[in-house]
Design a protein that fits this description.
The relative contact order is 0.12. The N and C termini lie far apart (36 Å). The protein is globular, with a radius of gyration of 17 Å. The chain is an all-alpha fold and 172 residues long. It contains 6 helices and no strands. The model has no long low-confidence stretch (mean pLDDT 76). Helices cover 74% and strands 0% of the residues. The longest helix has 34 residues, at 138-171.
Length: 172
């Protein structure tokens, strides 16, 4: 795959915008972990539409910007997003899930779970930082429900509608 300045600018723009939206919506919830993780959702979207090494860079960059803006240690968000981008690339390449909503929802819950667990392990074991409630907190469990639903509503539904309209117009 060939890299270009255009692709680099798009990745930087998506990473900055997703973190800006996350920062604007952060005051809506009062715990340390966000309910809706827009940088993670944008990483999943980019990795599923551009399955290449650029998706890995997108995951890492989005997480690093999130780490820099949150004031936390570097890597708490970057490593989980990098791993999730890798999983999206490898799993969606092997399993065609674009048209199967239940399977896609299961994969989205899996991605959010992996990102949460890796972030929790990073924070507690490597940085010796206490995280209230851990992975069994109501905030984390709620994010397992809300993140996949937000992803399906904001990203997958419009793509399916566009595909359906395109196929109907070609059939005329």
């Amino acid at each position: 795959m060939k890299w270009s300045w255009k692709k680099g600018v798009v990745i930087l723009f998506l990473a900055l915008v997703s973190n800006a939206v996350q920062g604007l919506l952060a005051p809506l919830w009062h715990y340390s972990q966000p309910y809706v993780d827009f940088p993670l959702l944008i990483t999943i979207l980019y990795a599923s539409t551009h399955p290449s090494s650029s998706a890995l860079f997108m995951g890492w960059l989005t997480g690093m910007i999130q780490d820099l803006t949150s004031g936390g240690a570097l890597g708490i968000n970057a490593i989980p997003k990098l791993v999730v981008a890798y999983l999206v690339i490898t799993l969606e390449e092997k399993v065609e899930i674009q048209e199967l909503w239940p399977v896609q929802l299961a994969f989205l819950v899996f991605y959010v779970t992996i990102a949460g667990i890796i972030g929790y392990v990073d924070a507690t074991h490597f940085l010796q930082r206490k995280v209230e409630g851990g992975i069994f907190s109501t905030n984390f469990l709620f994010s397992l429900i809300i993140n996949p639903l937000v992803y399906l509503i904001l990203f997958q539904t419009p793509m399916k509608i566009r595909r359906r309209k395109g196929s109907l117009e070609r059939g005329r």
